[in-house]
Write a structure and sequence with these properties.
Immunoglobulin-like; nine-stranded antiparallel sheet; Beta-galactosidase, Chain A, domain 5; 2 domains; 430 residues; globular; mainly beta
């Protein structure tokens, strides 16, 4: 199924459930034909429900406008698998891994031109203040694009461009905003703290200083389909006390992609957060060495020192993890509603990876990957600075080995190959 990009008004309430694209290639006479044979091989364990992809630029552009059906071949069985096409610099076919793939094993697929199976799409609900993503009638996260006033009525604390709530599939809320001890904490958000711009200090984290703020500017795209859905939002880092009034110091494209759950019983969400930052003008943006900065996660008030903990890829916990480096960090608790948690995965290409972390050793749960704990970071005009993360919000528990598998699947995708495909000249009927 092809990706659908939707342009929506910010004030309308829209629940998007787009029917599958089942058009056949008109006049081609190739409906039902085998288009390609695909193998998926991995040298590591691949967890079922992990998103995987293959580049399909070799296939005819006209064929890609047809309705494509992916099927996993196991012996004499042909198991339909939902798929989705993503167009960009290259054309990718995405699907959700239908079964575990053990290290050294191979799965076999066939891509045919046929009516695609009806599959629930990732749901997008847009109202006058937030965009919500979910699947199978369960909500996963809500991105606030409209400024939210603070309970203390101080206009300095009114901000947009943050995520709250983050839910588990069972509906447990994992985030908190405007806590009394840190009223500027906003669920899951991504400001820099100690920076310098055009010779002046600018703090985009501690809003009460009145120096800077991160604002939503506009949606660049909104996409849905049976495999993934999400959005790209332009955000602006605004220097509030610049010499001639407010001035944008940094542009950021915030990209959120929610992956469909492979089955209704799946006990976790997988979603990806990518931030791409670039200088807004010819002035560099200097991020000074500091123990806060980058994304922050303030957990629900139900999580306290007595019932919650963290575990990192290096075996550190709340007691000894602060300031250390890790590839991933698992934050979890046990509550009256049962155990739940959230796993943060840092991509190996991120700045300062394995990334330093800010972890509160006592009291409520706060976590963040902070790439400037040990060294400053100078962003220069003309460059794009990208950081990628995968977030797993789950019910129940995740073991150390499962967390490691999730990280490996994120940074080292399985090797997908087209072993055979229908010759282009036989399918490209101009």
């Amino acid at each position: 199924m092809k990706v659908k990009t939707i342009h929506l008004s910010y004030t309308s309430l829209i629940f998007i459930l787009i029917a599958g694209n089942t058009l056949l290639l008109p006049g081609s006479g190739i409906a039902g034909k085998l288009l390609a044979k695909i193998t998926l091989h991995s040298e590591q364990n691949m967890v079922a429900n992990t998103p995987v992809s293959i580049q399909i630029d070799t296939l005819s552009k006209k064929v890609l406008k047809a309705s494509l059906q992916l099927e996993m071949i196991t012996g004499s069985q042909r198991i339909p698998v939902s798929s989705q096409i993503e167009s960009g610099n290259s054309t990718l076919l995405w699907w959700i891994l239908p079964a575990d793939l053990k290290a050294g094993e191979t799965q076999h697929y066939e891509l045919v031109i046929d009516k695609s199976i009806a599959a629930p799409l990732v749901q997008i609900q847009l109202n006058d203040h937030a965009l919500e993503l979910g699947h199978l009638r369960h909500s996963a996260l809500s991105y606030h694009y409209a400024p939210m006033p603070a309970p203390n009525q101080n206009s300095l604390y009114m901000r947009s461009a943050f995520i709250h709530p983050i839910w588990t599939p069972d509906g447990k809320v994992l985030t908190r905003i405007h806590p009394a001890d840190h009223i500027h904490h906003m669920g899951f958000w991504n400001p820099w703290t100690k920076t310098e711009f055009e010779g002046r200090p600018v703090d985009f984290w501690n809003l009460g200083e009145g120096q800077g703020i991160v604002r939503f500017a506009k949606f660049l795209s909104i996409t849905t389909g049976p495999v993934f859905g999400g959005f790209e939002a332009l955000q602006e880092y605004v220097h509030l006390t610049a010499e001639n009034g407010e001035k944008v110091a940094l542009y950021e494209i915030c990209s959120i992609r929610l992956w469909a759950r492979g089955h209704p019983e799946q006990s976790y969400w997988i979603w990806d957060f990518t931030t791409s930052q670039t200088c807004a003008n010819q002035s560099p943006f200097n991020i000074l060495q500091y123990h806060y900065g980058g994304f922050g996660f303030r957990a629900t008030s139900e999580w306290s020192e007595g019932n919650s903990d963290c575990l990192t890829s290096e075996g550190k916990t709340r007691k000894d993890g602060n300031g250390t480096r890790a590839r991933w960090c698992n934050v979890f608790d046990t509550t009256d509603k049962g155990p739940a948690g959230i796993l943060f995965l840092s991509h190996r290409n991120n700045h300062e990876h394995p990334e330093p972390m800010r972890i509160w050793p006592q009291g409520d749960i706060f976590f963040g990957f902070c790439p400037v704990v040990n060294n400053p970071w100078k962003m220069k005009p003309g460059n794009i600075y990208v950081r990628k993360y995968r977030i797993i919000g789950y019910d129940g528990s995740i073991t150390f080995d499962q967390a490691e598998d999730f990280w490996q699947n994120f940074v080292t995708p399985a090797n997908a190959k087209i072993e055979w495909y229908l010759d282009k000249e036989n399918t490209d009927h101009e």
